[in-house]
Amino acid sequence: MLLRLFLLLSVLGSSWIGWVNSHQESGEWSCETNEEIRIEAGFRPGFITLDGHADDWKDIDAFDASLLPALDPDDDKEYTGGKMIVKARIFFALHDGNDVFFLLQVDGNYAYTKGDNHKCPSVALMFPIGDEATYHNMGGCKEGTGTCNKKTCKGHEVDIMHFSVGNAIPGRLYGGNPLDNGEGNGGDRFGHLVDLYGWNPHCRYLDGTGPSGNDSSGQNNWKGAWWHSSFNVHSGFVEEDSPYTSDGQKGTYFFEFSRPLRTTDRLQQDAQFTIGGSSKMSVAFWYPVDGNSWHGSGHYSVNCDWIPLDISPGSSMVKATTRGGSGDVASAFALLFSVFSICLSVFVGYRATRSNGRYAPVADLQLPTRSSSAS
């Protein structure tokens, strides 16, 4: 099914959104879904540093998937992105019992134009919220822009994270921040890593905003960073370093994200994840092919239907959290300490049985008395 969502949002000021061209689907929709794709978020506490680098993901299972046009997902139209981008390697995902982490890795020539999101790569993740939310038509509500609302589209809600990097410094964190969260919306005035919800491609809004008015409890619960392997500076960039490297450099893009498993949402605008439970998700990617600006409907996806997402319970992944021999040493020390404690307890008990079997009352204790010369 089609991922028609993700028309580029531009947050100007605090919460105003400028919409780009809406896509139009031509012909009848058809989809041959890849049923072999399934994502498991294993339990790995203290494993990931959210910095856009993939070094800490090297031991995590991943899958490769072709990037296909969302509007026409046929194999003969596989995304080549300037004859370089051909595959997306997806490390989905990990959780630490509190947050869930995602990494999207895409091979591609470096393309970046500061301040112009349409001439930089862009990434989005989408999750169903309502029980009737479909992948095709971004939730699938039949209502139009004048009639869609939380009543007429109830059950079709989807949760969206969209990261456009035109104003985002590589390696820096973006997403939820005190200024936008303080105003009660899912915007990000600094790097455009925004938290959205929607019912169909023409009815999507920042969290906390909508056709029925704004709500001050809206929040951006996402954080994320990006990087490109052609960068030769690892100590960190600042805005004045833009464009960070020259265009056309071969390499790989990395997009790393995190979000709490459960959020404080009370507006039906965030998907909620449960340890040991299952959910669904999708991935979209935009790229300025041959330097041309991309448009909202010109994105590519790894599948034409929802991808199953399993949040593994911690008990099934405990062994995986041990790296090298440090875990074995810790276990051996714990065992030795336990044996020592038992032996000490037995010894104390034995000495106690050698006494008269009772504690001497205070009156029986021989207390020293002061001599007359000391007075």
What does the model show?
With 375 residues, the protein is mainly beta. It has 2 domains: 313 residues, Immunoglobulin-like; 26 residues. The protein is 10% helix and 26% strand. It has 3 helices and 17 strands. The strands form 2 sheets. It has a 15-stranded mixed beta sheet that branches. A two-stranded antiparallel sheet has the order 1-2. One of its GO terms (molecular function) is metal ion binding. InterPro entries: Cyt-c552/DMSO_Rdtase_haem-bd. Keywords: Electron transport, Heme, Iron, Membrane, Metal-binding, Signal, Transmembrane, Transmembrane helix, Transport. This is Cytochrome c-552/DMSO reductase-like haem-binding domain-containing protein.
Structural class: mainly beta
Number of structural domains: 2
Strand content: 25-35%
- Overall form: globular
Q: Assembly type of the shown chains?
A: single chain
Number of helices: 3
Give the integer mean of the pLDDT values.
78
CATH T-level fold name of the largest domain: Immunoglobulin-like
Q: How many β strands by DSSP?
A: 17
Low-confidence stretches: 1-23, 81-86, 316-333, 355-375
Alpha-carbon distance between the two ends = 99 Å
InterPro entries: Cyt-c552/DMSO_Rdtase_haem-bd
GO molecular function: heme binding; metal ion binding
Pfam families: EB_dh (PF09459)
Protein name: Cytochrome c-552/DMSO reductase-like haem-binding domain-containing protein
